[in-house]
Design goal:
This protein has about 160 residues and is α+β, with helices and mostly antiparallel strands. It is about 40% helix and about 20% strand. The chain has a 5-stranded mixed β-sheet with strand order 1-2-5-4-3. Strand 4 and strand 5 form a beta hairpin.
Length: about 160
């Protein structure tokens, strides 16, 4: 319950920051960088992850508050990363990076997933290429099926 409360408090700040990044990216790369808010992860799914993935350790949940930056091109994605790294941005601290462009997630989906700390809560910020978003739901269905039978991480 405290985890959900912290995610609910951090989520609006994450979304504000995501929108800021998207807006900044349109300056060097006039295109269509968008930020998409995601709702706080549901309590049932959080409890399942704590139980099945994290051995009861709720501190390992890092995606209760989450959002996505969607880029049309690799140049826009690189611009988003530059904004994140710029000193003047005052970006939340990045505590973990998963480069799933180079090493795809199970099901073949590709993105860059960042965990950022906002007021002591770790949130998830995904960077997507728009052309790959179309396969995300299919890849997620594959992931859910594999997870349900205990094959997550298997290829």
């Amino acid at each position: 319950e405290r985890l959900l409360a912290a995610a609910d408090a951090a989520g609006p700040k994450l979304h504000e920051f995501g929108k800021f990044i998207a807006k900044q990216c349109t300056k060097p790369c006039p295109g269509n960088v968008q930020y998409k808010e995601a709702p706080t992860k549901g309590e049932e799914r959080i409890r399942e992850k704590i139980r099945t993935d994290y051995g009861g350790d709720c501190r390992r949940i890092v995606d209760a508050a989450r959002g996505s930056i969607i880029c049309e091109t690799l140049a826009e994605l690189a611009a988003a990363i530059r904004v994140l790294l710029a000193d003047e941005t005052r970006a939340p601290m990045v505590v973990r990076v998963k480069d799933r462009l180079s090493e795809p997630a199970s099901g073949g989906y590709r993105d860059v997933m960042l965990n950022v700390e906002i007021e002591g809560h770790v949130c998830e910020l995904q960077l997507h290429l728009a052309k790959l978003i179309g396969i995300k739901s299919q890849a997620h269905r594959i992931y859910k099926m594999k997870r349900s039978v205990g094959w997550e991480g298997e290829v």
